[in-house]
Design a protein that fits this description.
This protein has 491 residues and is of the alpha/beta class. It is built from 11 helices and 20 strands.
Length: 491
């Protein structure tokens, strides 16, 4: 297959991945499906893994449905050998529906939302928005999660016309609590709103606050108001229909807004990806592809290859399923204690000393209209390959032995690399790299594909960078143990 044709194929596959993954729950579910189709077996943290792992095996485990670790054990693996790890995150900045979201104003039905992560809020105005996430429902005397994705333009956050706000032409400032509120419909057009208003009027006409007959009985009491009373009833009915349940079965949910416009290839020569959530579904996708494709070498591999996809990076990673949790250490502890050959020992520390983490998160490509904000000599460009991210203050965990390793991995895959460092007069973001490096004592390098408009509802990446990062990860999994033995650090 020609290089261009192959690059376009990988890019289109990634676009399809984004379009079915509007939330971390969906992203993890999509990765699970791909791993299962590639022969990976699912494990549970609630079970003992004794006797369940074997050399040459392929496995994955999830936590909270929003974080995932997948790994393969080389057929020639020996305890104490290193683990080649690619880490990424499943979440992206967005708007999340509030616990009590029911609102109306000026005859409009509105939905209360809260900001998740550092989104570019103004990019959410005048977009076709919809809702997706996880819904807990009562079913057969159990409470089970269901994923929903409402595939229709449902909400919109309208801007104020320039005729009513002349300053919007030069600056766009707004209160995120009062102005960043989407509309979902009109009260006059909604049968449930009309019925609720009629009932409210009748209640007011006949109610008496001191009437004991109007007090709740213990059977009627609920510790928290049910979802129908906390949210617009028509919205609840739509969610129930999508989940294929009755509204009364819905116990609670975690739902976010997403851009209904599909991710797509664009540009004069299809060289761009115009998409939501490039940060960081690009890394989730390429890590998964790299791990699956590396299984063709499983029979000769002597180490473990592992991907770790975490939720909550955009808000600091401090959660039960974030990078600062016990998720990855717990799984590695299990892997370094499990018996593959009849012996029983703890190889955690030897394994960590021989392991390496590639912390993959998107990088800032040089912007053609804002070139002055980039460091003069370090200006990564879209479609010219993955970017090694460096920061002297350890906002990124990259150091020279790691760069040497990645260069050799890239040489074997014929993948070009770029370098990035921020200006001294500019702040620097961070990643899961420093967190996991400190937590595990594992050597780490930060990298990622270049993009524009990071944290916008609509970002821009490079079509030809998807296959490059996939190939880089595949090469890393294939060659890590061999190359690591040649790169000396502690003499």
């Amino acid at each position: 297959m020609a290089d261009t044709e192959r690059a376009l194929k990988y890019a289109q596959d990634f676009v399809d991945f984004v379009n079915v993954s509007p939330t971390p729950y969906h992203a993890v579910n999509t990765v699970k499906t791909r791993l299962s189709e590639a022969g990976f077996k699912e494990l549970s943290e609630r079970s003992n893994w004794a006797g369940k792992l074997e050399k040459g095996g392929k496995y994955y485990v999830t936590r909270n449905g929003s974080s995932l670790i997948g790994f393969t054990v080389g057929s020639k693996f020996k305890h104490g050998n290193g683990i080649a790890i690619v880490g990424a995150h499943t979440d992206s900045p967005c708007l999340r529906i509030k616990p009590i979201s029911k609102k109306t104003s000026e005859g409009f039905i509105q939905v209360g939302v809260e900001q998740y992560g550092g989104l570019i809020a103004h990019s959410w105005f005048d977009r076709d928005l919809s809702i997706a996430g996880r819904v807990y429902v009562s079913e057969n005397e159990q409470y089970v999660p269901k994923l929903i994705k409402i595939d229709k333009p449902l909400l919109r956050i309208p801007t104020l016309a320039i005729h009513l706000n002349r300053e919007v032409a030069t600056k766009f400032e707004f209160n995120k609590e009062t102005k960043l509120v989407p509309i979902a419909g009109q009260v006059a057009m909604d049968k449930n709103e009309q019925a609720a208003k009629k009932k409210e009027d009748e209640t007011k006409a006949h109610s008496c606050a001191d009437d004991p007959e109007l007090q709740l009985t213990p059977e009627e009491f609920e510790s928290v108001q049910n979802v129908i009373s906390r949210h617009n009833q028509s919205l609840i009915e739509l969610i129930a229909k999508e989940a294929k349940v009755e509204p009364s079965q819905i116990e609670d949910f975690e739902l976010v807004l997403f851009d209904h416009q599909k991710s797509t290839l664009g540009g004069l020569n299809d060289e761009f990806i115009f998409s939501p959530r490039l940060d960081n579904l690009t890394s989730c996708f390429t890590a998964t592809v790299g791990l699956i494709e590396s299984t063709e070498f499983l029979a000769t591999q002597t180490g473990i290859s592992l991907i770790s996809l975490f939720d909550h990076e955009e808000i600091g990673s401090v959660s039960a399923q974030g990078a600062d949790s016990t998720f990855l250490p717990d799984i590695i502890q299990r892997l370094t204690k499990v018996s593959f050959d009849g012996t029983s020992a703890d190889y955690f520390h030897e394994t960590m000393a021989r392991s390496f983490l590639l912390s993959s998160d998107m990088a800032h490509g040089v912007h053609p209209n804002y070139g002055e904000v980039y460091e003069a000599q370090n200006r990564p460009q879209v479609n010219l390959g993955p970017v090694i991210k460096i920061n002297a203050n350890q906002r990124y965990a990259t150091n020279s032995p790691g760069i040497v390793l990645l260069k050799k991995v890239a040489d074997k895959a014929k993948v070009p690399l770029q370098l990035f460092v921020v200006r001294n007069d500019s702040p620097c973001g961070s990643t899961i790299g420093p967190i996991l490096s400190a937590k595990l004592g594992i050597r780490t390098l930060d990298l990622g594909n270049p993009q524009l408009s990071m944290h916008s509802i609509r970002e821009t990446g490079g079509t030809y960078d998807v296959v490059k990062l996939s190939d880089l990860f595949k090469s890393f999994f294939e060659h890590y143990v061999e190359l690591d033995s040649k790169i000396l650090c502690d003499l």
